[in-house]
């Protein structure tokens, strides 16, 4: 019987080892798919940003968008990931953060570490998404090199410092104020929106946006269908993004990034309800499919801070409120001379702020773990102010310096001619696409009888 | 030794708990990705439906499509999910179905329930997909509010009642007749197609579709590339949809929705073979890439009822037969004055019926579990008739009432002018898209020398 | 106590069985999502190839692309999968390979086999991707039937034979030469590129590509936005493709296809770093977003052979080098009269060769398992030559026979008129993107002088 016990003991040990490894592998797979789906966000952003440009700037917009991604990922490898690990307590370097330095053994293939690479990848995609948020707002007049510097600062330094503070189990906003922002409404969207606002103040509006008398012209997206399909692809990718906001604990319940227990089921309920609330809010307010989809995104962002706690109809209501308000914010900014080509400040900046605030308004008292303070309106307001300032100040300061140096914006005549003519060696649509004269009704001959109509 | 045994017992208990939780988490992840991929279906439907519209109706089509999604999800929360749980045996409310009522503790974040939210989410996406099937057929003339009512009825009541009857372990069609429809050919596609047919009979054809002498005009998709790329995205999403048709049983073999053992491998074989058979069938019949992709979808639907049982070359043949026949069905309907703008009745209605029937023709006698009857042609025909009627009757009845009330269709002059001009405050393609002057030949300087040419 | 031991033994046995089954199911799920994401590659290829065509050939390109997929999948069922299993040692049939014959019990739903179907599916998608690589290069003049034969040969015979040799645990290139090509740079991309080059030599350039004096005209992609969004969707899908390049071992560490231990984390690091290096390389060299995205793909391919071993900044550098060189290769070929419409030979052929070579240059000595030789420059060069020849020879030979038989290319007047007018019964853009009347030559007035031509 001793022998039997021994054998059983060996079997149990083997089971424990196997279960541990299975959990590790399944964790790695989960974040692999999160990462893959976040690439879909970039397919979406690419479509959306090109669609939102006028035809003369389409490929310059696409180029800028791609380069933001291309520069953020390696810089996030070289210093972004380390910032997250180093600065949860403010500006003092955390012990142990050297494992995130680019020459660390963890930062490469390592048969004893099935985690760092995939966590880095998911975070690198968060970083690229954050940079892409700024990308759309500044199209059609920002200088490419200036934008790339701003994108690197935003994607590989600013937001990730904010994440260290407010989206990290040891982040001081959480440890001291119980800040709760599970789906990164503040740590990604608010920071990115505030940074973008800072840039826009220095960058100024596009040529032709405002008339001498202060009246406003619409500079229209050249392909609304491309923008809305792009936005829906972004939503697909948000399931990767939000999956990346929950921690897989082998053989135990999920936790959110702060260590509080959570379920993916709660995320599923509230993502869908916030999204659809946002679409309906956008429709009620605008009837414009571009804004309906943008407000769908606002709905997800609005519900993001409390994705783990909302009663789903409340997520719907919060999302719908966000969806109604975001176009009003966009209009408010437009009237004050801030020309945000895609409404990024309203969608991400306002949406993120509203999400953070909603958590304080509707979930105050939600308990915390490890003796950290419970959720409170105060804590959420502190987070909102800190993260907003953390985004706004560098965005404003760096772009102000660039403006003073005369490197922020393309020359006026290039802007008028269109950036593609100067920056891109190929044409977006070399064969054209012609709008038919409305007089050619559908019944009396179609193509053959129709005359092309000049666009303006 | 007693002590050792005790310790071992504790380890085993910990392993059991850990394995149970791991299985739960991995189950939750599986359906999370199913849900995410089903959002891709909606990116696809959006592209497809806008592409299939004429340019004057593009954004109205997109708006309608988005709102169908946006209204089905919350209504599915409020009553759709309960219908599924309440009515498997017909019209009597099942015991225990109150857990699916919107105020139940299961219908929200719940740390002891990692299942309800994610199941609800997957079903909500099925519901949205079902509603979207009807959406494409009725473009360019249905009134938005009328459509939204129909979409809610279809997505959050009718199809889910059908699913309770024929796509549920206790559904009476299965319990009494051995109805077998693993991939929801009948429960989603046939119901949606039949409902759509009911609407179309009352809605009537688009202005200009038929001439006074009864001859037919093609009202052409304004962008076939957008439609076919959209359809391929729908196929991507079908891997989420079909994944949602198999039950993850922690530590045990998969089962289909009826409790019969199944494998995801079988699904993989037959989805790909049905899909490619359908494409080839569509090509043989039409040479039209729009129909090739539509028939690829028909191929998947045709093979769907028996996704767990087909020998893959048979799935290919069934799919190809479906792909050859669907365009014939579309033409048959068109000749009878039924103007289905995207062929939804043929693709989903006929395709679903053929899928259900094929199961009876080629897999009669496939055994069932729990003493339920085996698959039979009779059982499949019963299912086909019941689900077809369940779809058709409310679609026809409600749209007939709407027609009588004069609220089903937009005014004739709005239709002629184009819905975008009336319903949508922005233009789809405001620039038309202007071609560069060809005088700048490809060889002598390119863009810099080119001047935009007003198309005139 | 004996009783307790017995009970404990039963629990342990149940745990072992449950863990084994859980691992199997989770493996099956992993490759299911790989397969689904690889469909995204085909949504991307479809967009990309249609976008790269001139407007007069858009739908013919789409049709060809879809049919390549549709014919490769079933032929891969009937013989492709067997080739992989039969020929790892060269041209002698391996023992046991009959399980991969289409009438084997493994090749269909099988409740005792949760693996064959899903492995087959992933490989079938690799096959379809391989065939699609050739598809883009030959647009606008190849005869559809000729292409389909070539696609089947490439997708269901040639590449999979190469995979049996160099991408299989028993492949002779690995067993004898330590060939290491984890992400299939050689086994998919190089083979496909070399095969394509073989076709292009016989197919000849498109009408109008070269002038009598040997100077070159750009035959421009009609929609660059469609191509770049398509390319980004291909990147999304590459996470499925590369996931399919790593072996899930229940309860144990991943291995690469050769049985060497590996991690998905390493794949994540190096895929993202190679991709972004490639984009930047392409930008440095061309400033053209089409090439930036193509070079992003080159970057992934360049890093693919050693995805399991690279230090991520080295993957970035290898990717960037590939991204700088690929457009130079494309230009080199273009100057020699080889008209590759999308640069497939440069992107996949050159990129794959560079990836295989880089492994020999930078990772020589990386140890192997089971007594197989370590990685060496010689071994990689042998692999490069063998796989290059394996691709080139049949591509060249079959297309030469087709050319001699006069069936390789469409008639000249069809090519000038546009393939859509002859092969496709619908128009791509019936309301816009006006097709120029052939009489309106590119030089004499363009849009203003051109009359829209009803596509007939």
Task: Give a quick precis of the structure.
Chains A, B, C: It is found in: Membrane. The structure is a homotrimer of 456-residue chains. Chain A has 456 residues and is mainly alpha-helical.
Structure description:
Chains A, B, C: GO terms for molecular function: ammonium channel activity. Chains A, B, C: It is found in: Membrane. The structure is a homotrimer of 456-residue chains. Chain A is mainly alpha-helical and 456 residues long. The first copy, chain A, has one domain: Ammonium transporter fold (Orthogonal Bundle). Helices cover 64% and strands 2% of the residues of chain A. Chain A has 14 helices and 4 strands. Chain A has a two-stranded antiparallel sheet. In chain A, strand 1 and strand 2 form a beta hairpin. In chain A, helix 1 runs antiparallel to helix 2, helix 1 runs parallel beside helix 3 and helix 9 packs across helix 10. The longest helix of chain A is centred in the first third of the chain and has 51 residues. The N and C termini of chain A lie far apart (92 Å). The C terminus of chain A is likely disordered. Chains in contact: A-B, A-C, B-C. Chains A and B meet through helix 1, helix 7, helix 8, helix 9 and helix 10 of A and helix 1, helix 2 and helix 3 of B.
